[in-house]
Design brief:
Order of helices and strands: HEEHHHHHHHH
Structural class: mainly alpha
Number of helices: 9
Low-confidence stretches: none
Number of strands: 2
Shape: globular
Helix content: over 70%
Distance between the termini: 32 Å
Number of domains: 1
Mean pLDDT: 90
Strand order of the largest sheet: 1-2
Largest sheet: 2 strands, antiparallel
Radius of gyration: 18 Å
Strand content: under 5%
Length: 238
């Protein structure tokens, strides 16, 4: 919170710009997606996209900065297990994602022509927490692997950003054909955003149960991998 302008409010401002630009460009003709006005369809996806990007940024920067500055020793010296370290990192990622999501939702509630309704609380909580945890785990792995900031930026620019932008945030995948539809079907960001949107508008572009299972499986694999690398001190211990 000491740098909340960077960690909370800057992402909120950027997300609101996305909302205003796309609603002006695409929503003026009364466009309907999944049975709701385009602005109502777009808002949940933007909230979730910002949460995912910020949970990744939180853990990747925390680990990498500690390595570069040499303060990682302050994390390794206390009698904390690898599991406790992993839970702490993921807790930070989920907390930041929740703060960013709440700030954006509050701003959108005050915006004209945007209506946020809670249809399924469990879906909002499940996909919000599991999505933030997934990107938090990915951020820890990136921080462990990266040796300089350019490495982390490569993952952000060529993996996280494309997957989040091509996740169905701005459109339904039924509009896509061929390879792009197949890409969306294997993009975990799509299931996260579609599930979170389902929690708000009550309509989905995919099978919610399948999406929930896919995300659970991915998080399980990422958690095991992160735990093993932290326990071994991969690129942390000389």
């Amino acid at each position: 919170m000491k740098v909340q302008m960077q960690t909370v409010w800057a992402p909120a401002a950027t997300t609101l710009l996305f909302l205003f630009i796309f609603t002006v460009a695409l929503g003026r003709q009364g466009r309907i997606e999944l049975g709701v006005p385009f602005a109502d369809f777009l808002a949940p996806g933007l909230i979730m996209m910002a949460m995912l990007q910020n949970s990744f940024a939180n853990t990747s920067s925390s680990v990498l900065i500690a390595k570069v500055q040499g303060t990682i020793i302050d994390i390794l010296m206390p009698p904390l297990s690898a599991g406790e370290l992993m839970i702490a990192f993921i807790g930070g990622a989920v907390t930041r994602a929740a703060a960013v999501g709440a700030s954006i939702a509050l701003a959108m509630m005050l915006a004209p022509n945007v209506h946020l309704h809670v249809s399924h609380v469990w879906a909002i909580v499940y996909f919000g927490v599991m999505g933030s945890a997934m990107l938090g785990l990915t951020g820890v792995l990136t921080g462990l692997w990266a040796e300089k900031f350019d490495h982390a930026a490569t993952i952000t620019n060529f993996v996280i950003q494309p997957l989040s932008l091509l996740s169905g945030t701005f459109y339904t995948i039924e509009r896509l054909g061929g390879v792009w539809h197949m890409f969306s079907a294997v993009n975990p960001f799509f299931y996260l955003i579609d599930g979170f949107r389902y929690g708000l508008i009550g309509a989905a572009d995919s099978n919610i149960a399948v999406g929930a299972a896919v995300i659970f499986a991915i998080n399980t694999v990422l958690a095991v991998l992160t735990y093993v690398l932290l326990r071994r001190g991969y690129k942390l211990k000389a």
